[in-house]
Amino acid sequence: MPLPSQLSLDRERETNCIAAQITTLNKWYGSHHVLRDIDLTVRSGERIVICGPSGSGKSTLIRCMNRLEEHQQGTIVVDGIELNESAKNIDEVRREVGMVFQNFNLFPHLTILQNRTLAPIWVQKLSRREAEETAMFFLDRVKISEHAHKYPGQLSGGQQQRAAIARSMCMKPRLMLFDEPTSALDPETIKEVLDTMIQLANDGMTMVCVTHEMGFAQAVADRVIFMDQGQIVEENEPRTFFSNPVTERAKLFLSQVL
Ligand code: ADP
Ligand code: MG
User: What does the pLDDT read at residue 14?
Assistant: First the structure.
């Protein structure tokens, strides 16, 4: 039975641990050079927000971090495991990394509870009872346990996204990746998803989050990474980044989103 305390990482103990290390990462789609010499270290317990204009490579970068995309040059090491051609390494990393997408990616033909228990039963070989207990614990945390037996189509966008976050939590990931988790939501449901993410951050979860929700970035991010044209152009703690961006590209971007 998972205990709430298992969710909390001891941030002090973990500060020096590296959750992910990306070194001189380069990626092409055909002849399009989409990621250029990306270096990024994510420490355990750290919350990183990635922002930047559309097409700058944000999704590609975080998709590379659990090998939904392959890279051609450089290294990506997640929780001590290098992401390369090794299917075993890819499986191991995916067990440690939760991913939440813009469009929820729930299985429409399974109830919210079944969506939660599928991977723990099949990948982690938990018994159904254990998996359901874990699932209900996390559904309760995101405040949708009363909808456990409904299908995704019966829930609002915000509820579906919270269900998707709870699904990742059931795998007890060491790192959570978010790709614009609120950008497909109605304005009134954005807050409920952001609140869930803030709760996760306060629990000490290591998070890399692509988002244009600058309020969220200011509230929880330890670091903001600004990307443009496949490069990390600027990187700073949020207060400095927002009040005093250095590059013209970041200034222009902020003038458009703030
Ligand atoms: P962002 O998330 O910052 O909007 P993406 O990482 O989605 O940017 O895309 C970066 C660039 O790569 C864009 O020019 C996009 O058109 C291109 N791209 C993304 N996915 C693919 C793909 N599967 N095949 C070819 N080009 C792609
Ligand atoms: Mg994107």
Answer: 47
State which H helix or E strand residue 94 sits in: helix 87-96
Structure tokens given for 203 = 């629990």
Nearest residue CA, atom 16 of ligand 1? 55
Position 103 scores a pLDDT of 84
For residue 111, the cross-strand partners are: none
Angle at the Cα of 143 from the Cα atoms of 137 and 148, rounded to 5 degrees: 65
Closest ligand 1 atom to Cα of 54: 4
Tokens coding 1:
């039975």
Chain centre distance of CA 13: 22
**Model pLDDT, residue 16:** 59
CB-count burial class (<10 Å; 0-12, 13-18, 19+) for 255: exposed
This prediction's pTM: 0.89
- Does 38 contact ligand 1 (Cβ within 6 A)? no
Assigned token pair, 204: 């000490």
Query: Which residue matches tokens 């075993």?
Result: 88
What confidence tens digit (pLDDT) does each residue in 24-46 have?
999 999 999 999 999 999 999 99
Which two tokens mark 37? 């010499």
Dist CA 9 CA 6 (whole Å)? 7
**Interface pTM, i.e. ipTM:** 0.98
CB of residue 31 inside a 6 A radius of ligand 1:
no
Does residue 54's CB lie within 6 angstroms of at least one atom of ligand 1?
yes
Q: How far apart are alpha carbons 142 and 136 in whole angstroms?
A: 10
Query: How sure is the predictor about 109, in pLDDT bands with cuts at 50, 70 and 90?
Result: very high
**CB of 55 closer than 6 angstroms to any ligand 1 atom:** yes
pLDDT at 9: 45
